[in-house]
Write a structure and sequence with these properties.
571 residues, 38% helix, eight-stranded mixed beta sheet, 21 helices
Length: 571
């Protein structure tokens, strides 16, 4: 295992014997950064734990300026000596979790090349979020030491055995988490990033057999060939590579009279292969991975005003809209105080993609506005999840002077329907935390049946945000049972979801024989939310049904993932 930021590391051996990062790797990272990015700048690239600057030099031709950081002064001295032909690289002595010399939101791309196993993951990701620009890119790349010997396959087990031994030496240094992270080729970071506000996460591995237990909710992309490193190996160079392993380095320092474990490993490997020439050329393959997420700092994330100069036009519009939409003179803020913690808790417990099911802060403010506009008193929503939308509605009702608690008929102002007892329990706890539990009743079960059981009651707003194939049934239940009060509004969420857009231009209901347009949408998000072509068809058919329904008129707002506002013509 590499230790490029170890203060006592031997820079010369590291420089000579480590595998080389493929020239195409930096191009792949930049291409990802620029794909679908509203502001794909390449002004500043940062390579943390840069060691002797191997990957920083790969970035130099692709960025106006590159900063390489490391905690080892000797490694940085070697890096400067090797970078004389790259005047745009600056080397700074700093830990990867504490990049004090780098300004907030100033970095376009930040890379960690076979080094992230040495970091405190939570602190590192937090620091990366501080220094990256909106829509900036993080690349966590690396390889493990479990080699495949193409011409000597019997050596594979011997190599694994010795690498485990090296890892045991590393474990003695108190770095169990580090070597386990390398063994699972940085799967840990993928899980961490998925819980935070990172988008478009791609994780590529080679070969496909290096993961014993792939993440069920985020299967990796298996590359047909190596994408991270290339290694012109000989037995001698392999011995030098093993000598740079952190556990080996520490063992040699503490046991100067013992045989070097790297020498033992190579001797065993050569014996297994029947080899005698240390300079024999070898064909070996490393297990490797590359995680590429981008950090989209939304209008719901606080950014210092002086950093907005780096934001995209889309970001500026959202930021400005959010600022002017909050009246500081309101007795109750438009954004309930408990909402940020609700979002954080939902991401931590359910994962990033599931957390996207909660309405955003800006959409919640829009719901608040409709409550005030309609002078709403009662609301029914289909789809509770962890309770964000209901909290926004209750907050607005409270601001409008609507009292909490059951009315004369035993009904609270808001009735929320969900099929999941788990989410209903979470939502109820969130309602208590928000101080609105006396405004909301949650009914668990089949929402179609439970919504029909409310016939005879009237509501000012019906909010539909549940299973997409049932939207038409929910809509008809409200309309046919005259559950909408005069001047009331049906709000259907997600009606322009990514899986709907391939059907743009297709009018009328569609069946399985109608092929969608070839329009791509974020695959990771689609997997996480369970989106599919079938759901796209169902939402499209709902949109067409409402559009042609003589009982109502509809306006779809192209905001978020589409919001359809529906009013009844005879109400």
């Amino acid at each position: 295992m590499a230790t490029p930021s170890h203060p006592q590391y031997e820079a010369a051996n590291y420089q000579a014997c480590r595998p080389r990062y493929k020239a195409s790797l930096a191009d792949a990272i930049v291409a990802y950064h620029q794909q679908d990015n509203p502001q794909p700048a390449t002004d500043l690239g940062v390579d943390v734990a840069t060691g002797t600057g191997i990957f920083a030099r790969r970035l130099a031709a692709r960025f106006t300026k590159v900063i390489g950081t490391d905690i080892s002064a000797s490694m940085l001295e070697a890096a400067r000596a090797a970078s004389s032909e790259h005047p745009n690289i600056e080397y700074i002595e700093a830990a990867s979790e504490h990049l004090a010399a780098i300004n907030d939101h100033s970095v376009d791309v930040l890379t960690a090349a076979t080094s992230a196993h040495w970091f405190d993951p939570e602190k590192f990701i937090s620091e990366v979020q501080r220094v990256l620009k909106p829509n900036g890119t993080l690349a966590i790349i690396g390889y493990n030491g479990f080699l495949h010997f193409v011409d000597y396959p019997l050596c594979d087990k011997v190599s694994v055995s010795h690498c485990i031994g090296f890892n045991k030496l590393m474990s003695d240094l108190g770095q169990d988490a580090g070597y386990k992270m390398v063994a699972n080729v940085y799967q840990t970071y993928h899980q961490l990033l998925a819980r935070a506000k990172w988008t478009g996460i791609q994780r590529r591995i080679y070969p496909g057999t290096i993961e014993d237990e792939p993440l069920p909710d985020a299967p990796p992309i298996v590359s047909p060939e190596p994408v991270v490193v290339e290694f012109e190996a000989t037995w001698r160079k392999l011995r030098g590579f093993y000598q740079t392993a952190s556990g080996v380095v520490k063992y040699v320092q503490s046991h100067p009279n013992e045989e070097n474990p790297a020498d033992v490993a190579v001797r065993d490997l050569m014996a297994t292969a029947g080899a005698t020439d240390l300079d024999e050329k070898l064909r070996v393959q490393f297990g490797e991975s590359m995680s590429l997420p981008s950090y989209y700092t939304s209008s719901e994330t606080t950014i210092p005003v002086d950093q907005l100069k780096d934001a995209s036009p889309e970001h500026l519009r959202l930021y400005y809209a959010a600022q002017v939409s909050v009246n500081p003179n309101l007795s109750t803020p438009s954004i309930p105080a408990s909402i940020p913690k609700l979002y954080t808790d939902t991401q931590n417990t359910e994962g990033k993609h599931m957390a996207l099911m909660a309405v955003s802060e800006y959409q919640g403010m829009l719901q608040n506005f409709f409550v005030g506009l309609l002078n709403a008193k009662r609301i029914v929503e289909v789809g509770t999840f962890t309770g964000a939308s209901a909290i926004f509605f209750a907050n607005a009702l409270k601001r409008n002077g609507v009292a909490g608690g059951p009315d004369a008929n035993g009904n609270k102002p808001i009735i929320s329907l969900d099929i999941s007892e788990k989410f209903a329990d979470i939502a109820r706890k969130n309602f208590v935390a928000a101080g609105v539990d006396d405004y909301i009743d949650v009914i668990v079960g089949d929402a179609r049946e439970n919504l029909a059981s409310l016939a005879g009651q009237t509501f000012d707003i019906a909010f539909i945000d549940a299973d997409k194939p049932s939207y038409e049934a929910y809509y008809n239940t409200v309309v046919e049972n005259k559950m909408l009060a005069k001047g009331g509004l049906i709000i259907a969420d997600n009606t322009a979801f990514d899986c709907v857009t391939p059907f743009i231009g297709t009018q009328g209901p569609i069946g399985d024989d109608v092929a969608p347009l070839k329009v791509s949408f974020p695959t990771e998000m689609a997997i996480g939310l369970g989106l599919s072509e079938a759901i796209g068809r169902a939402l499209h058919n709902f949109n067409e049904y409402v559009r042609k329904d003589p009982r109502s008129e509809v306006l779809m707002l192209p905001l978020f993932t589409g919001i359809s506002l529906i009013r009844l013509l005879d109400a």
